[in-house]
Amino acid sequence: MGNMVTEIVAFLLTISGWILVSSTLATDYWKVSSVDGTVITTATFWSNLWKTCVTDSTGVSNCKDFPSMLALDAYIQVCRGLMIAAVCLGFFGSILALVGMKCTKLGGTESTKARLTVLSGCHFILSGLCCMTACSIYAHRITTDFFDPLFVAQKFELGAALFIGWSGSVLCILGGLVFCLSMSEGFIVRSECLYSGTASFVTACNKDKKTDKSVHKEQAKPSRQFGRNAYV
Known about the structure:
This protein has five helices and five strands, in the order H-E-E-E-E-H-H-E-H-H. The protein has helices at 2-26, 74-100, 110-146, 160-220, 224-231; strands at residues 31-36, 41-47, 51-56, 61-65, 157-158. The chain has a five-stranded antiparallel sheet.
């Protein structure tokens, strides 16, 4: 029962993290910059992995998609690939978790379900690592340009999407670790039980063999008392 509750908690953590990771891919504000006027903000510049936009004080946004994938900066291409990989890994991990959990009637035997659960945990851990790496690379580029005194172009700050991505990746990693650790404890307990059962069986067999040998020796050993009485 305790192992089932642990699986449910891990599943909720991983699914919540995967939802946050998936929403990060489509969130607008990966980096943001504001141009302030005398009274109000006159314009807000923001970008994500797919486009760059500017929003004026009236709320009207003008966006421009990145013209060519081959003309993009390398870090944007890497972040795109890592985020897409994170979403795909989380999707397959959620399917494996649903099949491998004990509270479902899918997956076959207990050993098969345990292997599927461990595999789903590995998928979620990889998904969290991919998302965390993508957000960290993007944030490193922003902070490098921001603190570079020789960088004369417009400087940006960290957007809300990066913090959402970091939060989702942490949840995915934690849930995946709980999946793997809970199943590994089950494997250890099973192996100890099997080992103890095998050892007790071997000990019992040895005792039986020793008992049989002693009985045979007693039967084969001549009775000296009987021999003396016979001559009398």
